[in-house]
Amino acid sequence: MNNLLSIESLSSNDIIEILRRTKVMKSTRGNHSDLPLKGQCWALIFSKSSTRTRVSFEVGVRELGGDPLFLAAADIQLGRGEPIKDTARVMGRMLDGAIIRTFAQSDVEEFSAFSGVPTINALTDEEHPCQILADLFTIQETRGTLDGLRVAFIGDGDCNVARSWIWAAARCGFELVIAAPTKFQPPQHLLDQADGRVTVTTDCAKAARGAHVLYTDVWVSMGKEDEEAYRLAQFQGYQINSSLLHEAPKALVMHCLPAYRGKEIDDQTFEAHSETIFRQAENRLHAQKAVLQMIAAGRKTDVIS
Ligand code: CP
Ligand code: NVA
């Protein structure tokens, strides 16, 4: 594996191997026998806010022997309009890898192609692969297996996190039911590629019934702030709360965070399931270290000059 650009681009074997290594990373934290990033410098180039992703990558790169270099996109020439392909060709000559949080998925792909160094998607408008890898690990460590899994995603069914869930269901072969208002459902072409694993409804109770996992994300993703009032109105009723939990009383409640209590989840449910939710956040560190280790074992990608 040379890059992590999306869940779409992973094979089911890649995911199985990442989850296997995540378990080892977690159990050997503080006691790693090899440092695959020793002597390397990895940039974090972020155009959007972040707490978990930034901290887990900065800590993770250090724990594997490397040096992280945080670059807010607004502080470098990228923020003043320098093309991504020029930024990539400069950075590719100095860095050992890049971890990018931005808007367009094509920017991450272009950076990867032009830099020639391993590139990791730390969230785009289309996917959040690191999040879903940590989530799959969290489910596996709690349930023991992903076999027979049924996940209900409640809320913005067309956001980056939901889209990565769709690809995960397709690759891993579990059942995903998305409950979302009609205008916030994933496009049909995406569902068509999910091997029949994903269904969509406007009925939260129907989605939740029999689910092993109830999952939600913010109603207003980064970059959508100007739609806030419209979204808050559209998503009324698409909340994980004690009433929805009646449909799946034993379900794991999961949230990628940050959480907005009273919107996509109520405070009581959030706090009752906080152990799972914050373990999800912690598992970002272990899963991303597994990805970095796999990439370090790969080779430098081809450069477009
Ligand atoms: N879940 C997640 O990616 O959180 P941050 O936006 O804080 O990185
Ligand atoms: N869908 C959210 C995820 C935050 C981690 C966003 O893009 O803001």
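qc> The longest strand covers residues 41-46.
qc> done
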